[in-house]
Amino acid sequence: MVSPSTYFSFVVFFFCSSNFAFTTAAQTTSPFKKIYAFGDSFTDTGNTRSVSGPAGFGHVSSLPYGSTFFHHPTNRYSDGRLVIDFVTEALLLPYLPPYLGHKGNASHGVNFAVAGSTAINHAFFVKNNLTMDQTPQSIQTQLFWFNKFLASQGCNGSVSSSPECKAVFDDALIWVGEIGVNDYAYILGSSVSSDRIRELAISSKTRFLQALLKKGVKNVVVQGLPPTGCLPLAMSLAPEDDRDELGCVKSANNQTYTHNTVYQNTVQDLRNQFPDAAIAYLDYWNAYATVMKNPKKYGFKEPFMACCGTGGPPYNFEVFSTCGTSDASTCSNPSQYINWDGVHLTEAMYRALSQMFLSGTFSHPPFISLTDRKQHV
């Protein structure tokens, strides 16, 4: 039998060099049998709908969302697939069902990510009069959902405590997508400092990861934050003299870069605390920035303008006329755009980022190290 690490190397080769043409799957086995995913709208595969999602992006349940790949809306905040979808494809797994809509069959995993979610508990924003009652979920909410899911599977302890827990966690990959961008967005115009948000957000994410690791999970992927200053939303709101070498909003990009630097140190601390676990950090910021520095190399003609939106150049984004509203229009070729609706990315950009992550270029340690280590556990 082909070893898991050899298998994954082969899959990544085909995934990164073509449209994922893998012809010998029947002769091999995937290194992971299931994925449990967490995060916000960059990872959410259907836990929100138009009526329950973030204010300003209330049309995710309608076209043109989902138009590129699925050809119908799937409640993903994009024209097609997300990073997590490309990961499931690379592992030859089905797309993850959203937790709030799954019908009990979770043999290949569940997605707990929810759009608008914050790293910090909702109570903090309520206390500071920064309520976003439409999306009150946080990463701790997702942990609560996960624990409920575990209980429904008969798992009420650690991985080693019962056969039911082993059945849930064996051959499982924990995927913690980007989360924390909303926390910074919600304090715009308030007296709450970004330093305070960084401290609380990373503390909350650390507690979340510790809770999972204490259960005995062995394979974890965590994503950093993207350079949010490159999003049309930020570009349209910031003064024109607030720009960096990428042409993006310098203050916003510095904010997320600093966040990631501290977060990576925390991840290293967790590796030291839980030496039996493999934890890979995906460098979202630098992967995204690499595309921005040479968009044509990755097939993009429009690095700053939203494909779906209102207003035309330079950003095609207006806060009160976002994608899906009657005033909005959609570009004819989303694959040439990095950004989909002013905040979320196109399938083409998610594909490019997925290739960079899975190939190991922006994964520390390389993603394949999880399969190598798993082989010897």
UniProtKB/TrEMBL annotation:
GO molecular function terms listed in the Swiss-Prot or TrEMBL record: hydrolase activity, acting on ester bonds
Signal sequence range: 1-25
Origin: domain of life: Eukaryota
InterPro entries linked: GDSL, SGNH_hydro_sf, SGNH_plant_lipase-like
SUPFAM superfamilies attached to this UniProt entry: SGNH hydrolase
Pfam families: Lipase_GDSL (PF00657)
Coiled-coil parts of chain: none
Keywords: Glycoprotein, Hydrolase, Signal
Gene3D superfamilies attached to this UniProt entry: SGNH hydrolase
PANTHER family named in the record: LIPASE_HYDROLASE FAMILY PROTEIN, PUTATIVE, EXPRESSED-RELATED (PTHR22835:SF557), ZINC FINGER FYVE DOMAIN CONTAINING PROTEIN (PTHR22835)
Family membership: Belongs to the 'GDSL' lipolytic enzyme family.
Annotated protein name in UniProt: GDSL esterase/lipase
